[in-house]
Amino acid sequence: MSEDAISKLGDMVRNARKAQGLTQESLASMCGVGIRFIRELEQGKASCHMGKAFHVLTMLGLDVRIDGETL
C-alpha cells in the first residue's frame, strides 16, 4: 500500500470517527484495540496491523473497495 493510500485511509478513519461524535478513546474501546493503535491508524503509520484496521473500518460502517470491488 502506498504512503498516499495509507495517509488517505487515516484521514477517512479520522473523519468518520469525528462525524460519529467519537473520541479516539471511545473508538478504541468500541473496537477492542488500544488508543495508540487508533492514533497510529489516523496518522497513516505504515506498520499498522491491517486486520485491526479493517475491523475499525467495519465498526465505523466504512466499506473498503479494491479495483471496484467492495470487501
TrEMBL record:
Pfam families: HTH_3. Signal peptide: none annotated. CDD domains: HTH_XRE. SUPFAM superfamilies: lambda repressor-like DNA-binding domains. Residues 13-47 form the HTH cro/C1-type domain. This is Type II toxin-antitoxin system Y4mF family antitoxin.
